[in-house]
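Residues and backbone
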Amino acid sequence: MNRFAPSVARGIARVTEAALGPYQTAVIRIGFAATWLLFLLREFPHRQEMYGPDGPWSWNLARQLIAGNHAFTILMWSGSQVWFEAVYAFAVLSSALLLVGWRTRTMSVLFMVGVLSLQNRSVFMGDGGDNVIHLMAIYLVFTRCGQVWSLDERRVRRACAARARGRLPGPDRVGPALWGVMGFALALATGAGRISGGWLIVFWGLWAVQGLWWYVGRRVRLGEPRVLLDVVANVVHNAALFVIMTEACLIYATAGWYKIQGSRWQDGTAVYYPLHLDYFSPWPALSDLLSSHGTMVLLVTYGTVAVQVAFPFTLVNRRVKNVLLALMMTEHAVIAVVLGLPFFSLAMIAADAVFLPTSFLRRLGGWVARGRGRLSASGVRRTLPGPRGERTPTEAAEHSQVTSTA
């Protein structure tokens, strides 16, 4: 028994000392926020038919369904057009702010509220990608998804740099103000009886934890309470990350094993049929070209099943896992183009990103940073009047004349 004690101790220390997978959770945050934001913007002209009070799935029908399944949606608080437009704009704004990583703890909760409110309003409008976004929006609330590639991370880095130079950063006024506004809105909703049951406990609990976190970080920066909160946050984050990975594995495993039971998947012709459905043929010529090769249809059909069934078992081997991961992402990219399902594919690619290697994500971040630096440098060079920021003689004379006559 003593032989396993050091391993157990190392495992506990690893889970409690740090939030694992900071780059993976950042990619998940960016991926799902971008997918939902693009979906809302793309469907903006059709928002009335999908989620509006006068849509095919009427407000009264939605109210009857929600009364039975107790799903959460703030759209059912009012049937007015103004409220609907406000909630839709709220969903767009929260998605954009979570995408850039501004106040991620608060924005992850508001993002979840926006996703659940719209999707639970019209449950028959979604597909498999919407189901994935629905689940991941809940899981993201419990992750520390703003550690890297976020405005929060940049703010913390600047504060640390200021302390290193011997200057104390200014007090955070935005965070407490945002917390106060959220508390006021939550109190109004609670007083009006709009939130009850388990969701009432969840939202008030999240609000209280956020306030406690700010207070401890402000008053006892290096004390034991802050260490305890860090440990609890790391454990919750790592548990949520494990759930996200498990969920992705379950999605592929169940999809693969259900496909095996279908006769069309068994005889290798399943991929042929959706290519000839008008709804899934945005490019008929491309669909006809792909379906005209029987061998290709057979290989894609069997390959899809094999990859989905095998993927959960390949997690023990990093190289094999990375190969299958690349194949699955490529497959979803092809589905986005050939079958016209871009948001389903984006949602699945975002879910797959949790398994991407950290080394690859760091290189990806470096490439993006260098590309952004080049764009910034080229923009600066275009705006500078002379080489290295110096004015040419003519420009210097013009500037002297303007300043002298001003």
